[in-house]
Amino acid sequence: MTYIEEVLSKLNTKYFYEKEFLQASKEVLESLKDVVSEHEDFYRKNLILERLTTPDRIISFKVVWKDDKNNFQINNGYRVQFNNCLGPYKGGLRFHPSVNQSILKFLGFEQVFKNALTGLPLGGGKGGSDFDPKGKSDTEIMSFCQAFMSELYKYIGPDIDVPAGDIGVGGKEIGYLFGQYKKLTNSFHGVLTGKGISYSGLLGRKQATGYGLLYITKALLESKNISLKGKTCVVSGAGNVAIYAIEKAQQLGMKVITCSDSNGYIVDENGIDLDLVKKLKEVERKRISEYVKYHPEASYFSGKGVFKVKADIVLPCACQNEFDLEDAKACVNNKVICILEGANMPLTIEAINYIKENGIMYIPGKASNAGGVAASGIEMSQNSYRQSFSFEDVDRQLEVIMRNIFNNISLTANKYNKIDDYMFGANVTGFFKVVEALIEQGI
Q1: Cβ neighbours of residue 198 under 8 Å, at least 6 residues apart?
Q2: Helices vs strands, H then E, count in the chain
Q3: Catalytic residue at 278?
Q4: Predicted confidence (pLDDT) per residue in 37-79, tens digit
Q5: Active-site pick, 90, 114, 126, 281
Q6: CA 78, 213, 113 angle in degrees (round to 5)?
Q7: Across the beta sheet with 57-66, what order do the strands follow?
Q8: pTM of the model
């Protein structure tokens, strides 16, 4: 049995109930077979893969808060501090009913490699709660955020662990969390990223994940002498990542013809009306089905199916495992050029294997959605310098970082004769950077 097979077997036995974490671990470790086999005895002797797949610590706590009826409510809170070899733990907070330890471990594990690829001095972590902000009043959200931070603040700091937003944690929630941290510590420093512009936030942070996704898409296609202009694009989701991916795609001359939410999806062959989507999702907080009331020429479909819509480029930007084998087969039939992940692990392993076998170029989220954490790293620098960077300056830095990520993962893939295998390139590039730091700091 190879070392990788040994580690995967141990993980499956020990964490059989953590399906998301096991999926992420398998995807990464199986792509490392060639590089690990070169020094297998060294890696096995020093438990390198066990160290990489085991979080430094997991903090779990209860969150007690009051609702508008003056009743007490209780939720679970977590922070997974996965690896800080390269810098302070860095990764978002997710507030969603689905949040559990497995999901946060998978996200934290992915974050380690993603942050390594940016070239910034950032470790990896993730956190959140099973609290659902949907349907809650501002007062209730504030009450929860203050209670959550009253426990979390003990474990974070600008040189220790710097959380950010994620699903269910936007500018409003970051503001409430930061305000409580400041109150409890009597200090004003960059302990959170994604802050409001009025209190040392970064211009361009909101757009960064979506914009970064298109910058790496552009770099990929340019490497193949393919222009983005005039290409049609399928985007899933209608949250922050999807909205700004659509915005940048349109700026680059592409036609985006879909967007979606958890109930269904829109197909607009004339091109998505982004101003309307922003109004529905960011202002009115309505379902995407409302789109057809304003554009009756568009079509709304309930349930899954957005990835079966014919287009040149597919960008999954909603949630993990939204793209399965049937979607992969549809994309192959539709002659899709490339698929890049805007969300974290939206493609199942079966889907990834199928599209790779059938020649669709694919870049995993740890590379393609790294724009958000890249901008967070820039925000941390801005806070340390007590400066304010312009939107244009941030956007330039973001594009440079995303192009560098593409160049590095491409070079790694080519070095091992894995031409166009950008998943291999991303995993191996991140692996070497983290392991080098781990060894140099004393294993």
Answers
A1: none
A2: 18, 13
A3: no
A4: 989 999 999 999 999 999 999 999 999 999 999 999 999 999 9
A5: 126
A6: 45
A7: 57-66, 72-83, 124-129, 89-95, 161-164
A8: 0.94
